[in-house]
From TrEMBL:
<dbReference type="InterPro" id="IPR013785">
    <property type="entry name" value="Aldolase_TIM"/>
</dbReference>
<dbReference type="Pfam" id="PF04055">
    <property type="entry name" value="Radical_SAM"/>
</dbReference>
<keyword id="KW-0408">Iron</keyword>
<protein>
    <recommendedName>
        <fullName>Radical SAM core domain-containing protein</fullName>
    </recommendedName>
</protein>
<keyword id="KW-0949">S-adenosyl-L-methionine</keyword>
<keyword id="KW-0479">Metal-binding</keyword>
<keyword id="KW-0411">Iron-sulfur</keyword>
<dbReference type="InterPro" id="IPR007197">
    <property type="entry name" value="rSAM"/>
</dbReference>
<dbReference type="InterPro" id="IPR058240">
    <property type="entry name" value="rSAM_sf"/>
</dbReference>
<feature type="domain" description="Radical SAM core">
    <location>
        <begin position="49"/>
        <end position="269"/>
    </location>
</feature>
Length: 330
């Protein structure tokens, strides 16, 4: 066993923040090595301690499947992907039905997810309607295109508790989103009182430890509500087809590394799509999904887990499931 990795693990477990070189060292260990499994075990223990042994199930309702001008090369909605050629939206009755089903199933948070073509005012109307059918005070989270401070305040006033908003891997190169606008949106969300959800994503086998470390340090500096490791589900005939997907075994080491690297003040550690290997390595936030998904080429996602499947996954990994509103959007 490489003792320098053990020293880095011990430093993180002791509550100290790792520096860039230490984070890169964790992310660079050989797959399936003793060091990789030590990181996974430590990540699990660290997240478990920070969260009293509890994990959360969040839920995602994808509201539209439109060819999106942001053209993120990892997304099935990207206009250049050619998967979705016309704009389709979930009817409001269907959104409310899905929200009620997730509510009854006991999810800890509900995300409303759109492409960049979804109308902002329409989104506020949907939020108000969804809030009206929820029987529990679970946070509603907006996963939408970039916005300014005025709109962030409108989201907050409409009853939104948080925004999932991320500087993605390859932002500005493999997307048509402006990197400064992504940061400005996150700052606006925080100023308006929205908690910002984060993940290091979407990770493929070609991404280097340096690239991942940059985003981990950015997440730390932005004081996000939680972070984690999400893999890219590679859409056919895109710039990433030649790379394919990273294995969940490798992603599990990143999940453990990110848990340790984000430090004790970022308690939650998400992963997507749901994976037992990543949950075993410390991921304690996973998503059930309905409606549209940027990882699926079907308009109604067939990839998304149900809440019951998420519960089963956690049970297999000996996580307790938190009962009540998410602790990360409080
Ligand atoms: S990831 Fe979001 S912004 Fe980018 S193309 Fe897909 S829907 Fe549009």
């Amino acid at each position: 066993m490489d003792q320098s990795i053990i020293r880095i693990i011990d430093k993180a477990r002791g509550g100290a923040l790792l520096d860039r070189a230490e984070i890169i060292a964790l992310l660079s260990v050989e797959n399936l090595s003793p060091e990789a499994f030590a990181i996974q075990q430590a990540g699990r223990a660290f997240t478990s301690e920070l969260n009293d042994g509890y994990a959360e199930i969040h839920s995602h309702i994808g509201l539209d499947a439109s060819p999106c001008p942001c053209d993120c090369a990892f997304c099935s909605f990207a206009v250049s992907a050619g998967v979705f050629r016309r704009k389709t939206e979930l009817p409001l009755e269907r959104i409310l039905d899905e929200a009620s089903t997730f509510d009854a199933a006991g999810v800890n948070a509900l995300y409303l997810v759109t492409t960049a073509r979804y109308d902002q005012e329409q989104f506020l109307d949907v939020v108000a309607a969804v809030r009206g059918v929820l029987t529990r005070d679970i946070p509603i989270v907006a996963n939408v295109a970039d916005f300014d401070l005025a709109y962030a305040r409108e989201l907050k006033a409409a009853g939104v508790a948080g925004a999932y908003h991320v500087m993605r891997l390859g932002e500005g190169t493999y997307t048509r989103c402006d990197r400064d606008a992504r940061i400005a949106t996150i700052e606006a969300a925080k100023e308006a009182g929205l908690v910002v959800g984060n993940c290091i994503e979407p990770i493929g086998p070609e991404h280097t430890p340096d690239e991942l470390a940059d985003l981990i340090l950015l997440a730390r500096s932005l004081e996000v509500g939680f972070s984690g490791a999400m893999r890219r589900n590679t859409i056919p005939n895109t710039a990433f087809s030649k790379y394919g997907n990273i294995s969940y075994g490798r992603l599990a080491t990143y999940a453990g590394s990110i848990a340790l690297a984000t430090g004790p003040s970022i308690r939650g550690n998400c992963t997507h799509e749901p994976s037992q290997l990543c949950a075993q390595a410390g991921a304690n936030i996973i998503w059930a999904e309905r409606g549209t998904s940027p990882r699926d080429v079907e308009a109604e996602t067939l990839r998304g887990y149900s809440v019951e499947q998420c519960r089963d996954l956690y049970a297999e990994c000996d996580w307790k499931v938190w009962d009540g509103p998410s602790r990360y959007y409080a």
